[in-house]
Amino acid sequence: MDHPIRIIISCRKPNMIQRVVILVAAMLFVSLCAGCGFHLRQEATLPANLQRMYINIVDPLSPLAKDLARALPRSGVVVVDKIEPGVAVLEIPVNAFHTDVLSVSGRARANEYTLRYHVEFVVKDAAGTIMLPEQTVELSRTFTFDATQAIGISAETDLLTAELQREMVQSVMRRLETASMAQQKD
Fold first, then answer.
1. Considering the entire predicted model, what is its pTM?
2. What's residue 117's pLDDT?
3. Edge-to-edge order in the sheet of strand 88-104
């Protein structure tokens, strides 16, 4: 008859081996990621002529304006309330959502939609010269309409809209960073 302590020890050994294997696998993964040059995306780094910026947008209370006003300071930019000398301007004349029907059922009901987010912007540096000519960014998401779950459609639309707004802010920030890097190389 086995001793109770031996049974407990023998039950713990596979668990200990499993932990060691997981630990070694995690360490191997981390070292491979570090060795290949992988690193998390950092905030955009913008040049000195964009360190003070005014956001000129059609609707200053829009989610895009608010999100940009939060994202720019994380990149070291001071967002100001009015245009002054030495202040760069981010002009956003177009900021619009559109919903298009993609497909229709045999009963003439929409089955599939596309939610499109269209933004156009221009960046002028502190000297007033156009640093980034007019840029057009259009993001879209496709979703299907199920008549049996009609209540969830508005929640899904809200979720997709919020996702598109986050992606738009990141897209604008990446374009600002890319333009500033190109200008520094010149």
1. 0.70
2. 94
3. 78-80, 52-57, 88-104, 110-124, 130-144
